[in-house]
């Protein structure tokens, strides 16, 4: 039996990246994240993959990657093991254009911009064969100190690794990989120079399986499958009114579509984390009218100005109905504050998405359990790399280093 390929996951969150690598048969050595509930979710998933309790306790490090103590722990766990792949992306708020727009110092003073230096330190110490660095597209235009940070990141990684910095190549959209969501992310793949592998070849091996709505509009579907939609992702889920639902319920799906066949195991008889938020009466009425009429906030403002408490010109996307026959909009961590960007398309349910609905849009398997408070579960889902996209990346990498 061939030895399993190994990986470590930094800024791991709840383990969306890891999930894709597990599905491709990789073995995890270390996961690091600052958020305790996310670490508990990772442990829960490792049990699913039959890791021993002792290896789970040792390999999941809940702490700050800028601390020397955490670096020591990582060194102790890795010891002399060879690491094949390092994955992970530092928290993205400081790079994201939305985050920058809301901060008058343009995130200049945000220490999170330099978390990638901790990432570099571990990269250079353990020198995996390949690394995958994920971040928001805003990274390409971020200027925390008046200088573009992207060339600085490329420069820092280039001592021992070959990289591709072509912005078109490195910006991947999850919808192409069987995820029912438009989510464009920077995926930087670096290959250790002594391996003499062109990183461009690795990108070319990441197989696109589905076309996106823009390609459809231009009639350039290239023989790919049609994008998956919100309806494809959530059609079978029990209908809930605001405040209804339980963390675990029995759930049988009589007729599975292709997407559910991918993410819901045949043996599954339960459903996790499908609990609807409570909403006040005004919000319920907003959601009902917006989803029933497929309106935006400005349309609602004309008919029911009494329901508007934002200036619709400025906050037209503050309330957004997920369109049933299109891929979902990008699932974001803001979900933990409110779900207004994720209003359910069924107006009779007049509510926002549950954690499970968001997880379906993100392509998490149905047997993936999120641990922690519901607020924290939303954050975990919103911050994650979609597992099906991670799986395609893992599959491509395996071709070069197996």
Can you give a write-up of this model?
This protein has 402 residues and is an alpha/beta fold. It has two domains: 225 residues, Rossmann fold (3-Layer(aba) Sandwich), CATH 3.40.50.150; 154 residues, DNA Methylase, Chain A, domain 2 (Alpha-Beta Complex), CATH 3.90.120.10. Strand 1, helix 1 and strand 2 form a beta-alpha-beta unit. The chain is globular and about 65 Å long.
Helix and strand element order: EHEHHEHEHHEHEHEEHHHEHEHHHHH
Tally of DSSP β-strands: 10
Number of domains: 2
Give the low-confidence spans: none
Find the CATH topology of the largest domain: Rossmann fold
Task: Summarize this entry quickly.
The protein is an alpha/beta fold.
Jot down its keywords.
402 residues; Rossmann fold; DNA Methylase, Chain A, domain 2; 2 domains; eight-stranded mixed β-sheet; two-stranded antiparallel sheet; 10 strands; globular
Chain-wise SSE layout:
Blueprint: E1 6-10, H1 16-23, E2 27-33, H2 36-48, H3 53-59, E3 60-62, H4 68-78, E4 85-88, H5 97-101, H6 115-126, E5 130-136, H7 149-157, E6 161-163, H8 167-170, E7 171-173, E8 184-192, H9 199-205, H10 213-217, H11 230-234, E9 245-250, H12 258-263, E10 270-275, H13 281-293, H14 297-303, H15 355-361, H16 374-383, H17 387-401
Parallel strand pairs: 1-2, 1-4, 2-3, 4-5
Antiparallel strand pairs: 5-8, 6-8, 7-8, 9-10
